[in-house]
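Schema walk-through. Below, the input block comes first and the output block second. Nothing else is stored per chain. Lengths vary across the set, and this one has 266 residues.
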Amino acid sequence: GGRGYRGPGGGGKGGRAGRGPREKPIVNRTYAVCDVLVWGDTDLATADTECRMFWLESRFAEISDAPSRRARPLKLILAKPVTPEYLSQCYHTDVGYVKDSFLFMHRESHYQSSEAVTPLALMWRDRQISRWVIDTPDPQALVLPERQVVVLEVRKGGYLRTAERTIVGQLDDKQMGEVQEMVRGANLERKTLVRCEASGVDVAAHKVTIAKVCCVVAAKARVWPDSWGRIAFQHLQRQGQVQHISFQALMRAVVGDVGLAAGEVK
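--- output ---
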């Protein structure tokens, strides 16, 4: 979507705005739609990907090009079979909207609310696709935090686990005491997520070393901790070790090392 633009206010003494009519900000926001869980009274969460994509495309064909005055315009992001040529086209060319990431989904996959991670769905990006490839609070994504920030679930004994329920670290006694103070005596046996700064990530050993506990993440803010894939991906991007997660590696996975699309470097 576009950003709002506010016209200049009237000038008065001391720089105060005048009392005349002000220009309203011009806002052009479009919601991008790439999947569907519920449409009207139809529950599609248990339908496979191929069915959901067909449903979306057919429903969007029935939507008027001119939305009602109070409705936000919708744009369908079409799902296409992954071929080397199509993937290269999506990566290198203008697709008519701001790209954020590639979402790969198995055609027979469906949603399962009780599981946070599935091998049948993969989201991928790099710096050409998105400037937000590495998490940062900087609005321009130019300054990276000194340490990688992770969200993990605290278990009994201070053990920390990912969305896949893999134990990847442990809080020391001091850090555990800080968490107890943050939750103000609440039962830690319930699902408790903490945002931490990591001083180290060992990808081979699946281990995270915690330098600082920043805060407890409210249950209404998010349900699941980070997946190990997300933690490892962020770490490798921060370290510049992207040879195995680069676009070229992605292309090799698509073509099976047989050959790359024209213009691609193996």
